[in-house]
Design a protein that fits this description.
The protein is about 60% helix and about 0% strand. The protein is mainly α. It has one domain (about 15-155). The termini are far apart. The mean pLDDT is about 95. This is HPP family protein. Keywords: Membrane, Transmembrane, Transmembrane helix. InterPro entries: HPP, TM_HPP.
Amino acid sequence: MLHKLRGAGTAPARPSPAQIFIGLIGGIAGIGAIAYLTQLAGVPLLMAPFGATCVLLFAAPGAPLAQPRNVIGGHLIATLVGLAVMNIAGSGPWQMAAGVGLAIALMQVCRAIHPPAGANPIVVLAAGIQDWGFVLTPVLAGSVILVLIALLINNTGQQKNWPTYWV
């Protein structure tokens, strides 16, 4: 069993300087735009899991987990689960655990797995959010903004074609 801990392969190659630059610009543009729009509109559009979403969108845009269906759908599903658990059972360690587990299962059933969204039930339950409007702002609005920015950044340059799929 211990020999399995060392892994079977080698670490992936370092991304090209161009891909590293895209990750840098994407993270700045994505979170910067949401933070700026939050200030401008006076409506919360930013939440911590969006930072991890940016990692997938701009450092691994070809991954299935970084496609619009997964980003938007995963965030919506996981947040709805968190809100349902909060409104039915309240907040606590077991509710957080159940919320994350249920979110994972439902994202799988819906074919919209997005790992950063797994944190959404924790965000909802830890903050004691009961307002279903949280699904619209920040979750839906913020995830759509990130996907729109990814459309621009991930399609800049020759032979770029993102997303791989929508539905």
